[in-house]
Design goal:
Pfam families: Oxysterol_BP, PH
Distance between the termini: 86 Å
Helix content: 25-40%
Shape: globular
Keywords: Lipid transport, Lipid-binding, Phosphoprotein, Transport
CATH architecture of the largest domain: Beta Barrel
Oligomer: single chain
Largest sheet: 7 strands, antiparallel
GO molecular function, one term: sterol binding
Number of domains: 2
Number of helices: 12
Family: Belongs to the OSBP family.
Strand content: 25-35%
Protein name: PH domain-containing protein
Amino acid sequence: MTEAVHKEGYLLKWTNYMKGFQRRYFVLDGRSLAYYRSPSEMAQGCRGSLNLLDAKIETAPGNNLVIQPGGKRTGQVFHLRANSDRERQDWINALQLAKQMASNLRQANRKSGSTRDLRRAVSSLLDEVSQRETRWAKALTSSEKRRNDLEAALESLARDHRRLERSAEIAAEKGLVVDAAELEEETERNEEEEDEFFDAQSDLSTSGKSSRRLSGPPASALVGHAHRGKPFEFRRAIPFKPNKRVSLWGIMKNCIGKDLSKIPMPVNFNEPISFTQRLSEDLEYAHLLDKAAKATSSQQRMVYVAAFTVSSFSSGADRTGKPFNPLLGETFELDRRHTKGWRALLEQVSHHPPIAAFHSESDDWIFWQEFSMDSKFRGKYLEVIPTGVSHLILKKTNDHFTWTKVKTTIHNIIIGKLWLENNGTMDIVNHTTKDVCTLEYMRYSLFSSNELHSVRGEVKDKSGAVSFCLEGKWHSSLSVYSPETPKDKHVIWERTPPIPDFEQMYGFTQMAIESNEISPYERGCAMTDSRFRPDKNLMEVGEWDMANRVKHLLEEGQRFRRREYERTKTKWTPAWFELQPDPVDPNKKRFQYKGGYWEAKEKSRFGDHGIVDVYDIRPVEQKDMDAARAAKGAMVINDHSELADE
């Protein structure tokens, strides 16, 4: 019989991004390749080994070679580097010979197998099947008990919520008018300071004419719009994030240089919210648009619009979780006419590339955007680069603004605490008056004078003259001042303080917590609404393992629908948005709202618009039935619309 191949020697082995290639002692013995720190360590056991039987042996530039397990085996991949091309070739020859001899030996053993060996193998397999059957039966019983406990807990939670709603109704009704009056008084105090500043600037730019009061919706708008005379109070908290540790690097190391929107990720790295909901948080400080609509000069209007664009980043200041990628056709409505005077609709209009269309409107303005992005993992950090365009029209003056968001970078992917920054240049253009605001989101560095989260900007008229200067931090506040009086600064926007225990609730803002709840104002929303998404809802209540299973089923359902479209040669089209020429760049087409959603909701006629149930789960195996049942129950976890109506 031919002797087994044997070879020893030092090679450089890739370890990690902190240490790079390290010198290790490799031993090839038969069909096994093992490595040690040094020959003296061989008696203590190897640090890693690899079976060459089905392994793939590949060469790479720079005297490199890669050895990875073949077939269905999983294990360590060896990234190696030799000192010379000749040394690399010697190792490759030895490895290929060892692999061939192992394959020949396996074939010989197969041919010489006896009936006795076959019986022994069958008996062993039967024992294994019996043991697994016992384990599966226990696991099934445990899973069924856990599901029943979850259903009972959810039912109890709903009953408790119903009792609390009823107990609070009388007290809330008595305090509603007082709260509204206090809000009006506070609003007037804040806006008087802004009026004083812009009145002073108006003396310089508008021949002594004083500016009008910059006020948002009157406080009286908060009274009398409660559901059937009963105020609805949104929840103030969600279940705390479970302390479940998982290696981010273990998953991300295979994603370097790739678009993360195309890579399935476990919910461990998510936050329990869909990206359609996350995008709607741009409107958290929409009162700035109300003020822009009422400002007297185009430069003042630009100041408020600039503050609005800065405020849209603040909701992500304390959040590093990834929102759920929306399913194709997933929608989200947000109706805040009863308190803030606007409503919004979002729809996922494309899957590859992922594109979300967003339309919102009030009596004074229309804001819409087509949001898409490129995301790249660079090893130590993750880059998210928006590519869509935002549009804003102020109805009274017909001012038309556009801008594109700046890049977001998430640091410390490998080691350390995750943190993010927004950096780059944003140009906000008023295509009606030709005013321009340039905002510079400063990149933080230990070796520069830039503070973390800093943003600075200038508002220029069509002649290029600077009218106002802006500075602040995108996660907290923004101030405005005149270039003639740089020390006389006035806060134009300030972030709402975080809610209690926000760190344990994924860093959510109050608006993020509300967006996952079905209030009376969203009653009757489309079945494609993100609030019904079951994997997200299961994650919110702490059922992460089940959420992962349901997430997989939802993605499989999406693939099933895509194959059906291909089989029937049917082209999928969005229900509420369509490609139209961009108003400021007619050569480009962008998704814009075509109308019909709110009318269909009012008449309960969503079926007339051809929408499909994007949360339809089609379990292909019996083991998925538990996940399907859990998904069905999770679709209404946060539905309090009926409770508030009783």
